[in-house]
């Protein structure tokens, strides 16, 4: 992925990278609990939001990217929903744990 471009606004700061038809956005609100206020499918204690946008992205690709992020930051990543269209989501409850073979 190319370098991330960073920005911020009233309640959050974020970085975004685009390559082809894949966009990854990492968002961190300034206050704990904001993600849960915005989206009730966000698990408790999550303080970063990661959005991946790609038409027809496969579950195994989401898991692969989630695993890379989990390993890089040495923490679990939670895949908690799939956005279909405004007001239409599929709730997910998938935890991607960090690998133990990372240095």
Tell me what you see in this structure.
The structure is a single chain. By secondary structure, the chain is α+β, with helices and mostly antiparallel strands. It has one domain (5-96). Helices cover 19% and strands 42% of the residues. It has helices spanning 34-38, 59-73, and strands spanning 5-8, 12-19, 22-29, 49-53, 77-85, 88-96. The strands form 2 sheets. It has a 4-stranded antiparallel beta sheet with strand order 1-2-3-4, with no helix packed on it. The protein has a two-stranded antiparallel ribbon with strand order 5-6. The mean pLDDT is 87.
- What is the first-to-last residue Cα distance? 22 Å
Number of domains: 1
SSE sequence, one letter per element: EEEHEHEE
Query: How much helix, percentage-wise, in residues?
Result: 10-25%
Low-pLDDT sequence parts: none
Given helix and strand content, the structural type is: alpha+beta
Strand order of the main beta sheet, please?
A: 1-2-3-4
How many β-strand runs? 6
Radius of gyration: 14 Å
Major sheet details: 4 strands, antiparallel
Average pLDDT value?
87
Task: Indicate the overall shape.
Answer: globular
Which strand-content bin applies to the residues? 35-45%
Number of helices in the DSSP assignment: 2
Concise overview:
The protein has 103 residues and is α+β, with helices and mostly antiparallel strands. It contains two helices and six strands. The two termini are 22 Å apart.
């Amino acid at each position: 992925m190319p370098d991330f471009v960073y920005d911020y606004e009233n309640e959050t700061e974020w970085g975004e990278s685009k390559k082809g038809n894949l966009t990854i956005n990492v968002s961190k609100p300034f206050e704990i609990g904001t993600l849960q206020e915005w989206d009730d499918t966000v698990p408790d204690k999550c303080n970063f939001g990661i959005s991946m946008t790609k038409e027809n992205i496969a579950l195994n690709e989401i898991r692969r990217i989630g695993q890379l992020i989990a390993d890089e930051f040495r923490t679990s990543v939670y895949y908690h929903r799939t956005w279909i269209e405004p007001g239409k989501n599929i709730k997910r409850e998938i935890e991607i744990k960090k690998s133990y073979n990372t240095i």
